[in-house]
Amino acid sequence: MSPEPFIRLCGVRKVYRTAGEEHLAISDATFDVMPGELVSLVGPSGCGKSTLLKVLAGLHPHDGGDLRIGSAANPFDPSRDVGMVFQAPLLLKWRRVLENVLLPAEILGLPLAAARERARELLALVGLSGHEDKYPYELSGGMQQRAAIARALVHDPKLVLMDEPFGALDALTREKMNLELLRIWKEAGKTIVFVTHGISEAVFLGTRVVVLTAGPARMADNFVIELPRPRTLDMKTHEQFGVYSRRIYRLLGME
Questions:
Q1: pTM over 0.90
Q2: Helix, strand or coil for residue 72?
Q3: How big is the chain by its Cα radius of gyration, in Å?
Q4: What pLDDT, in 10s, does the model give residues 191-225?
């Protein structure tokens, strides 16, 4: 028997209302996310990708359609079960790295001794052992984003939402972080929804790619990426990688 989707969206809509006017941000989002998937959401800037993440995180209500996360047997609490990673690391400059990673555990009132041990384990997982007592300014951009990923995992969330987390990094660091994210995802075993406007990045990372058109967000396609794992950078030269990329380019009117 196949597993139930962890996330199910059917015709989800989101409308912003300001100064008596309505702005349709998401017109029709319909797709499933299975437990343990890394789903890439790709689309042009301003198409509603970040808004959709905020809806999934429970930060904004949706205004139409159906959204279900979790199940009766596996209930989902957005305040406890979501980890967020943003384009900027958003580390508190006056707190050391370990203290930054511990922040969600402190907010949720988790036992700090156990959380501190988990934070150290996660810093090792993301390759930051030995940097626990440094301040953010002592880390490179890529290292800061690794710390942000550790922070998103410290309270053991069921869902990790990533909003263009590598968009501000240089090209070489971004490629390295893509590989690191795949390793972390495999070892942590989390369900991840990853927003990007990078077509190559979406194909390289995703178990599946959801393509959103220019705002208001509407799902144009949703397909499985059948590339072998573990993924390696030379896969970007493979014919099938190009087929997937061209499929997205066509959907976005770029061919």
A1: yes
A2: coil
A3: 18
A4: 999 999 899 999 999 999 999 987 677 888 999 99
